[in-house]
Amino acid sequence: MxxxxxxxxxxxxxxxxxxxxxxxxxxxxxxxxxxxxxxNILYCRQVVRLKKTSEVVSARLSKQRIRLIEEIAExxxxxxxxxxxxxxxxxxxEWTLQxxxxxxxxxxxxxxxxxxxxxxxxxxxxxxxEKKKIVLQYDAEDFEEDMNTIxxx
Length: 153
Known about the structure:
Layout: H1 9-21, H2 29-50, H3 63-76, H4 80-105, H5 111-118, H6 122-131, H7 140-152
């Protein structure tokens, strides 16, 4: 058996590339599990880097929800806090996007600011506006602000 230091950035970059390129379903279950395990190691490395800036938060959850979290954690081979963190990350991204769309729809922020707030490119934001059937509000003042935003970032 070969032991590899999971903190070796080159090794992790290669494994990350393999996990992205190869579809896990192409492999036998044992190899597929290994790729899932490696993917979880890479995700956990990101969490370890954040631990210095994280804090413990408690929450009251239903027994049914806790059982589901435990089931997912066991299948993914990670701890429950990782599953909860992933769920919260997904929710906060969606909430931020919805908030940006609401502010844009009400004319409070520009397209560039809405995209920046949601962590998207302007083109991605335009696609979402189209899908949600939100009218594009764009004038010369918005164009100037967008140009300034592009120059800054």
